[in-house]
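Reviewers asked in the last cycle whether our approach scales beyond single polypeptides. To address this, we selected a multi-component target totalling 658 residues and predicted its structure end to end. The input consisted of the following lines:
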Amino acid sequence: MIQPILLLGYGNPSRGDDAVGPLLLEAIAEQIDPTQIELITDFQLQIEHALDMQHRQLVLFIDASVACKTGFSFSELQPAKDNSYSTHAISPAAVLDVYKTITKQSPPASFLLTIQAQQFELGTGLSELTAHYFKTACELVIQLLKQPQFNAWRTLVTK
Amino acid sequence: MYDHLETAQNPSNLKRVVIDPVSRVEGHGKVTLLLDENNKVQQARLHIVEFRGFEKFIQGRPYWELPVLVQRLCGICPVSHHLAAAKAIDQLVGIDTDNLPPAADKLRRLLHFGQVLQSHALHFFHLSSPDLLFGFESEISKRSIVAVLENYPEIGLQGVKLRKYGQEVIRMVSGKRVHGTAALPGGMNKPLSKQERDYLLEDIDQIITWSQAAVDLIKKVHTSNLPFYDQFATIRSNYLGLVKPNGALELYHGGIRAKNQHGETLLDHFDYCDYNAIIHEEVRSWSYMKFPYLTAFGKQNGWYRVGPLARVNNCDFIDTPLAEIARIQFKQHSDEAMVHSTLAFHWARLIEALHCAESIKTLLYDPDLLSNDLVAQGEKRYEGIGVIEAPRGTLFHHYQVDENDIVTKANLIVSTTSNNTAMNESVRQVAAEYLSGHELTEPLLNNIEVAIRAYDPCLSCATHAVGKMPLQLELIDAEGQLVDQLTRHSNGEFVRESA
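The resulting structure, written as structure tokens, was:
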């Protein structure tokens, strides 16, 4: 049975703040209903992640971001051809676009949570700044999972 | 040989063009071309511009952490590092690879076949097929896997599913798609359950069929334009890799074989634990990536290529029937003892993918996979060396530990480093044959990237750093003035800014 909700946290656990997506999933793993929610971690997104989205109702991508300057950001995703295809790691919007291409259907409702990040050195842990926002981001995810409906998530969008 | 283009005579008077970073490779590499006033290439180099610090990261850690730790080197081949480290650590607990329990040996091989299958599928379908199906100089908007999915939906989807299947093999054996903890010192931590085995068996025949179709596709692409494919970026080199004791293709454990460009054997069944006696790594001032060569033949003649082309060239046969037929056809297409075409890396890569799919099926029917006899124990040693054939080629992990089991010394030679001289030579060949004397355009410069991409370099493995910089092409005139600049941002968008 495929769980209706997918949380996909990605990043390299050994590269400082890049670990924040996988760490967040680790932190909430004990608090979720595994019959309803699947947690997947990976180093980076690639097009096969579109297959992980099949038969879901809600998908949440969680990533570190140097572009985010507000601690964390929660946004709704739309499929987009954004040129990230030419790299080893593609964007969440591009994954949604791949989903559309290969299934000929609209992707499930999808959101992106980014957490402000600043350092990616090999062998380092989370920076103070990212560790601070990590806690707030965990609380947000728990709140989202208490109301796993598209409209409820939409009201919490920060941009 | 194009080594005369490694260093220009009077670089200060030349125009400089930079490709930074090279796209669709893992990590951060940069190509610089120096041109004279007639746009003739006088110097071409592939640089690695970030310092490699992974060995230092490992030192001071207890050895048993390594199989998990080293997976974080790279998002593309974590399992290869996991298994190479595991083989080295087996030795630290007194177990040589040949003495592993049969179940542990077979589970590791299954894991490795899954890894090579998914990595080869990623490389061919996601990163290289756009160039091969649409042309090296086609519109940049076409050169992506999404364009392949739109124009060749069946091929594109098969590529996605082949990669997915390889990752499912990894997940079933190690418990996770990434960062699994499958290998332990001296063995493995869990058998395959009957349910897991049956789940993988459900799709394996389809995977073999698709892998065979992929070989047919690349054979058709290569042979339909044979003179070009056999000549583009082609260099004559030595080849190095592991083989089985009977000379068959081997990806997990064997002796080192090296052949020269004429197919003559330079080394055979050499014990990889003595690799330091045959390989030297040269340092050059202009790149952080070293240049390994076979010491006995010197740095001019001893450099070699590793990876699918080397392995399929070097082996006497492949011990799975469909891949062996494909290998014979591959070798027959060339009129030389060795296939030197750099673009033939793609063909060899897909033959190996087919071999992996066939081998996965054979292993899944082996009852040893379900056995709980998974760990062997021995006497502690202070040095361990593990070598495997990673998707991109021979991978060396070498560790020394102290009496407290703390790593005091680590040395890694990754496949991309072994191909460093060859990649530079291919870049120089393309620069001299296809770019020299022409006005440089992005599609033309893609030819350079196509040559590098054929090696499937993993620059983050070679440098242990993830590149985040945009690509920048700068055209500087003979007086040193910037006349044109083309920037590719990290999201892939191109912006032209003329001076």
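The longest strand of chain A covers residues 58-65. We regard this as preliminary and will revisit it once experimental data from Aim 1 are available.
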